[in-house]
Design goal:
138 residues; Rossmann fold; 5-stranded parallel beta sheet; 5 strands; 44% helix
Length: 138
């Protein structure tokens, strides 16, 4: 029997508890899954349903990291990332996508995303990606 210790709000350093996350995801089920994971960590978040909303929210709010789906209506995650980088927004952007092909990973980095996670993602991958992105700025 393997015992796995999951990080909790109590385990985190004080500064880790105040992380503000922008989540850009159009699929309702995926929204709920990521919300549950983020709430468990006690992090603050704002949820938007497409890339255009993500750009507008990011420009008007203060966030430590962005979780960005790639395939969204109005403006996809790549287009949103290009727009944010064009506007000199340097917030770390983590791609969360159903695509796992190397070409999608490569394009995500080319447009300015900092990390790439394929769905279904492991909760530890999400936690580590967020914490590492916030601490390193990438």
């Amino acid at each position: 029997m393997e015992f796995r210790h999951e990080p909790t709000v109590i385990d985190m350093e004080k500064e880790d508890r105040s992380i503000k996350i922008l989540i850009a995801e159009d699929n309702l089920l995926n929204q709920r899954i990521i919300e549950i994971l983020i709430k468990r960590m006690g992090w603050n978040y704002t949820l938007v349903g497409d890339g255009l909303e993500a750009v507008n929210e990011c420009l008007n709010g203060e966030y430590d990291v962005i979780l960005m789906d790639i395939d969204m209506p109005q403006m996809n995650g790549w287009e949103a990332t290009i727009e944010l980088r064009r506007k000199k927004v340097e917030i770390p952007i983590i791609a969360l996508t159903a695509y796992s092909e190397e070409s999608f990973r490569k394009k995500s980095f080319e447009v300015g995303m900092d990390k790439f996670l394929s769905k279904p993602y492991d909760k530890d991958e999400i936690y580590d990606a967020i914490l590492n992105s916030v601490k390193s700025g990438k």
